[in-house]
Amino acid sequence: MKIRLGIFLLALALIAPCLALAAEQEEPTIYVIKQGDTLWGLSDRFIKDPRYWPDMWSKNGQITNPHLIYPGQKIRVFPDRLEFVSDEQPKPVAQIPDKPLQEVAKEKTYTVRGNEGFLLERAAKASGTIIGLHNSRAIAGDDDIVYTDIGKARGLKGGEKFSIFRKEGTVAHPKTEMILGTKIIPLGTLQITDLEQTSSRAIITKNYREITPGAVLLPYREGQRYEVALKMATTDLKGYIVDSLNGTTVISAGDIVYIDLGRVQGAEPGNMLYIVRDVALDQKLVEGRVNKLPQELLGALVILKTGHNTATAVVVKSIDAIYKGDRIITQSK
Question: How far separated are the first and last CA of the chain, in Å rounded?
Fold first, then answer.
């Protein structure tokens, strides 16, 4: 009996330091926010995952705006998470030493190039059509000459610019079958150079894709690039992916998609949404004891530009195959 008790005490003596070490490692260190810090940068610096910040933001009620964190605020740094320290809690002893600001990761932005396309929600009459290409060519590109069916009779005076688009048919909602709009694919821009009464000659000033006869002209849209920064949604957004730019069956990271959320629903450029899918239940097996399974997380997207009830977005992460009709939500449950 004494031998067994001795072995037990020896084992306890060996385990105790390990338990103490584990407890010590779980004790968080404290970081004090400095000017120039962002949630994106803090997530990248301490968690090694810059896309962790929406989770961090959502679990800290005192942070009302992810871009408005202030010098002097404090966060607890755990190996797998970050937590803001409220004013009521006692001051911690251990603090992370200051590091140069240049070591803090810059806030992530996404580039809008102007060739992402969109859903044209309201019926818009085209300004005109490209009816031919110089030397009867089949395809036009930068600096090529094209001919249009608009002229002096339409009030043109020469020098006007138009955006060139290709209509790819109407887009119906994958669940309700309601028509959301017409998919519009930007092809480029042109400028009118010579006018007749009912026709004109123009030069292609920019092209994103092959331009062919039959392409439609709409009022000029500025195609300059600009950056969209991540921005936490101010309302709970829930919707669906309704189509993609390329119309492919399987959607993955880097693909442009169209969603059924726009300005009316509170969607804004920069909002990040999770892409999820409900898992089907076999009721024969659960016998009514379970009515819902955890959602399958497929990836995430960021809204680039919004329309009235739709928006254009880019898939920034794909964990599994994504399809038209998959759900999108602001927070993964």
Answer: 53
Q: Are residues 211 and 266 in the same domain?
A: no
Q: Which of 315, 176, 186 is nearest to 255 (CA)?
A: 315
Strand order in the sheet with 74-77: 29-32, 74-77, 82-84
Tell whether 152 is covered by a domain: yes
**Could you list the residue range(s) of the whole structural domain that residue 250 is in?**
230-329
Is 159 within the bounds of a domain? yes
Positions of the chain with pLDDT lower than 70, given as ranges: 1-26, 36, 50-70, 86-108, 123-124, 222-224, 280-294, 331-333
- Contact criterion met (CB below 8 Å) for 165 and 218: yes
The pLDDT value recorded for residue 112 is 86
44 burial type by CB count under 10 A (0-12 exposed, 13-18 middle, 19+ buried): buried
Same domain, 140 and 163: yes
Residue found under tokens 């998919």: 183
Domains contained in the chain, number: 3
Sequence letter at residue 36: G
**Distance between CA atoms of 252 and 32, rounded to whole angstroms?**
38
Instruction: Tell me, yes or no, whether 6 lies in a domain.
Output: no
107, 137, 154 — which closes off a domain? 107
pTM for the model stands at 0.66
What is the distance between the alpha carbons of residues 190 and 219, in angstroms, rounded to a whole number?
A: 11
One domain, residues 245 and 174: no
Q: Which three-class secondary structure state does DSSP give residue 259?
A: strand
Q: Which residue, of 45, 77, 107, is where some domain finishes?
A: 107
pLDDT at position 131 is 96
Measured in degrees and rounded to the nearest 5, phi and psi for residue 6 equal: -65, -40
CA distance 189 to 164: 5
Output the six-digit token pair for 220. 């000029």
